[in-house]
Amino acid sequence: MRVTLARLAAFTAKLKEVRIILDPSGRASKGVREYIQKFYPNLKKSNPNLPILVRECAGVQPRLWARYENGKEVSMSLTNQAAPDIQKQLEAVGK
Predict the structure, then answer these.
(1) Rounded distance between C-alpha atoms, residue 22 and residue 59, angstroms
(2) Whole-angstrom Cα distance, residue 67 to residue 89?
(3) Which of 38, 45, 66, 82 could, after both became Cys, cross-link 93 (CB 3.0–4.6 A)?
């Protein structure tokens, strides 16, 4: 799946923060690590004012957290997902 910068830049202004939690060596986080290596730099360039936090913690299942206006938060599991699937999850929370 080819990810363009235009697609990465389409986040809504209501999205205030994105957090990605992963295990630095766990098998369930393999796709998340790949996503961070390949897509994070362009994602951050496209959204310089959006806090995008990447947190590593041994033994955790990978998750994506999105915080919106008024403190509303959404969480999605990223367990055993490939990098393109993670991009789809980010696009879903960014709308």
Answers:
(1) 9
(2) 14
(3) 66
pTM score of the predicted model: 0.84
What does the alpha-carbon distance between residue 54 and residue 40 come to, in Å, rounded to a whole number? 10
The pLDDT of residue 83? 93
Cα–Cα distance, 14 to 51 (Å, whole number): 13
Cα 20 to chain centroid distance, Å, stands at 5
Residue 61: pLDDT band with limits 50, 70, 90: very high
Asked if residue 16 lies in contact with residue 67, where contact means CB atoms within 8 angstroms, the answer is yes
Q: How far apart are CA 19 and CA 68, in angstroms?
A: 12
Please answer whether residues 32 and 22 qualify as being in contact, where contact means their C-beta atoms are separated by less than 8 angstroms.
Answer: yes
- Residue range 43-65: mean pLDDT, rounded: 93
pLDDT the model gives residue 10: 52
Could you give the dihedral angle defined by the CA atoms of residues 34, 59, 55 and 81, in that order, rounded to the nearest 10 degrees? 30
